[in-house]
Design goal:
Elements (H helix, E strand, L loop, with lengths): L11 H4 L11 H4 L15 E8 L6 H10 L4 E5 L8 E4 L4 E4 L2 E10 L33 H20 L2 E3 L6 H10 L7 E4 L13 E6 L4 E5 L2 E4 L3 E4 L13 E5 L5 E8 L2 E8 L5 H4 L5 E5 L4 H13 L4 E9 L2 E8 L5 H7 L3 H17 L1
Parallel strand pairs: 1-2, 1-5, 5-6
Antiparallel strand pairs: 3-4, 4-5, 7-12, 8-11, 8-12, 9-10, 13-14, 13-16, 14-15, 16-17
Helix pairs in contact: 3-9
């Protein structure tokens, strides 16, 4: 039989009919795939200056007003109001949720934020109901619950400072360390000792009078909201009293005869000075009407140099420095890194420290953005 003719080869393209073209996405719907047309409207944390203090700290009020005028937001956390405070700190994002506000702290300034102002009974009224617990028999602040609350808020304040772009903290060396530091930099400072037995150190001093002052703060707060002052007292050296047992540690310091007393505020490198006249060390608190205050155009050059030297040595951004002028020589007494300033401004009807504080916080805020 004759061979059957071979079939012609076929190809895939020849065996399939061509597909119709795919649908073309309309320009209108194509906008949905364009990243440039996506707006992220999710809430974002607000950069702000965070202020930790007490409700009675009125020095911060005009500072907040100045910052608001510069378009800088602030948030404030008062120690007395912690029972009503909702706080969440996210260290990985460096954000804070404070009473429902999402914040990014650029600067945290811790001033008079004292957990002793916290009233544990405000957290749990039932736990401290007088019908259950005799309030005269046990101070709520002295219970384990109260101690834990205070310790926890102290830790929270430290964490807020840690996640901020910059922290202005109230940390400072003790008074004796400050005086020793001044002497090491060639700045005159009075002789002082810490003792539980003041009568035993009479012979440590050549001056006929001495100053007895607290080794720590000038205020104690045995009951939340009730501050009790214990201010420096000038005594004749012979009047240093003793007792049958040691007392609390106190500073005994030589009294320096002087012609002037100066309060110098170091604020982010700026210096603002006031001359203060008083009849007793406690006058700023107990007899403000007897207080004389005069704003100085600038501190004396030796005082300015000593202030800058000590501020740098203690790494301070803010500090209230006290000096005496004795025969023209500056004598350093101490520095308070959370010292108030409005009392001096009110007496002189000036606002240089307020303006300088606002400018310092604004500069730190912008640098952290």
């Amino acid at each position: 039989m004759p061979d059957r003719p071979a079939a012609a080869p076929t190809t895939a393209s020849a065996s399939r009919s061509p597909r119709p073209p795919g649908p073309t996405r309309s320009p209108f719907l194509a906008q949905l795939d364009d990243p440039a047309r996506t707006l992220d409207a999710r809430p974002r944390p607000t950069p702000c200056v965070l202020l930790l203090s007490r409700a009675c700290d009125t020095d911060l009020d005009p500072v907040r007003n100045l910052l608001a005028g510069a378009g800088i937001r602030t948030a404030r956390l008062n120690a007395e109001e912690l029972a009503a405070t909702s706080l969440t700190i996210a260290p990985d994002r460096r954000t804070v949720r404070l009473n429902g506000r999402e914040l990014t702290p650029t600067v945290t300034w811790i001033r008079h934020f004292a957990p002793t102002a916290l009233d544990p009974a405000a957290y749990d009224r039932a736990a401290y109901d007088p019908a259950v617990l005799d309030p005269t028999a046990l101070d709520p602040a002295g219970t384990p619950r109260g101690a834990f609350l205070r310790d926890s808020w102290q830790a929270a304040a430290a964490q807020l400072a840690a996640i901020s772009g910059t922290a202005v903290r109230p940390d400072r060396p003790g008074v004796l360390c400050q005086l020793d530091l001044a002497r090491r930099y060639g700045i005159a400072a009075p002789r002082a000792v810490l003792t539980t037995d003041p009568h035993l150190v009479r012979d440590e001093f050549d001056s006929p009078r001495v100053v007895v002052k607290a080794a720590g703060h000038h205020f104690v707060e045995p009951v939340p909201g009730r501050l009790h002052g214990i201010f420096p007292t000038v005594l004749d050296r012979a009047d240093l009293a003793g007792g049958p047992r040691p007392g609390p540690p106190v500073i005994v310091q030589e009294y320096v005869e002087h012609e002037a007393e100066l309060r110098v505020y170091f604020v982010g490198g700026q210096l603002h000075a006031f001359e203060v006249t008083k009849t007793a060390p406690a006058d700023p608190w107990t007899a403000p009407d007897r207080l004389g205050v005069r704003a100085l155009p600038s501190p004396p050059p030796d005082v300015a140099a000593a202030t800058r030297t000590l501020a740098a040595a203690m790494s301070l951004r803010y500090g209230a420095f006290d000096f005496l002028l004795s025969a023209g020589t500056p004598v350093f007494l101490e520095v308070n890194p959370d010292g108030d300033w409005r009392w001096a401004e009110r007496r002189t009807r000036t606002t240089p420290v307020t303006v300088a504080v606002a400018a310092m916080l604004a500069a730190l805020h912008r640098a952290a953005l």
